Amino acid sequence: MQIADLQYRTVWWQDGAINIIDQTSLPFNFKVLQLTTVEQVAQAILQMQVRGAPAIGATGGFGLALAARLAPAKNFAEFIKKSKETLLATRPTAFDLSYALNQVEAAIAQSPADSAATALQAAQAFADSNVQACRQIGKLGAELIQPNFQILTHCNAGALATVDFGTALAPIRFSKHRNIFVYVDETRPRLQGSRLTAFELEQEGIPHAIIADNAAGYFMQTGQVDMVITGADRVALNGDVANKIGTYEKAVVAKANNIPFYIAAPLSTIDFSCASGAKIPIEQRADEEISYIEDKLIANPNSPIQNPAFDITPARYITGIITDKGIFRPEQIRHLQK
Question: How many C-beta neighbours within 10 Å does residue 204 have?
Fold first, then answer.
């Protein structure tokens, strides 16, 4: 991820601490946070100072590695178990978190005498593999983009949502065609599109415009969108996809207008134990995300609120899933389990 003249990852380990780019400060301020306890890591994920399935996974993995360093010798196993449970409970929909935690936990179990070092190696391996996976997603997905394409995306699936490069934005970054244009859904209620995706595209010098969430159908219906690419928080075995709330409706409208709809996700986002989208847990977030913007009340104060953070896009609306191992039809995902 490029910030002015400096190169950053979204999350990295340095000097015994987890470093993250504070995404709640962007695009107005660039701030790096250092996390030195498991509780700080959990709060950073809960408060969405770090967000996006792969970035959450990397942060969680480093968080469990941190736990291995902090665990008291006499209660080591219990401390690791509780730390994993604390981290896993932060964002139940994103599968990379579970994937990374399991990888680090397995490393600890295999080398209990050197658990701090092996845990950190496993966490770093997950982070590094995500960078390479997103790079490959970018290279493969770029082949789908034609000259003068106008692309719609939803939420933020750029470098900030991963360790680097991104998922949905990676093909755009790697495209050899510079005359492409991106429509950026604002992505209510937390505005990840208008705040984060637009910020990344501006940093990269990629032409784009922020649009209201409910304007996407207009641009598709009037022939101003050639393809839709989004990321994913979990992909089920049958090709159903959980992603930021509002993804489902974009997919339905794209299908109605014969516009290809692609998901971009590394293999670590595929939950091969989950038969379909009906089995994916959907995180419900706080009412205040809907009723407030910062400290300003924007809704009727006495009305009840429902705030699901994700929805399920059935496989039948998805043209293809761009992974680091290739581009597949949704029904082909189950074969990647091998």
Answer: 15
pLDDT computed for residue 329 by the predictor? 98
**Domain extents in the chain:** 2-134, 142-337
Chain centroid to Cα 34, Å, comes to 21
Do the Cβ atoms of 265 and 232 come closer than 8 Å? yes
CA dist 139 → 55, 167, 233, 264, 324 (Å): 20, 11, 21, 12, 9
Look up residue 249 and give its two tokens.
């409706």
Q: What is the mean pLDDT of residues 62-71?
A: 96
Q: Which CATH class is domain 2-134?
A: mainly alpha
Residues forming the active site: 233
Strands 150-153 and 181-185: parallel
Q: What percent of the chain lies above the pLDDT cut of 70? A: 98
What's the maximum distance between 2 C-alpha atoms anywhere in the chain?
A: 66
Into which CATH architecture does domain 142-337 fall? 3-Layer(aba) Sandwich (3.40)
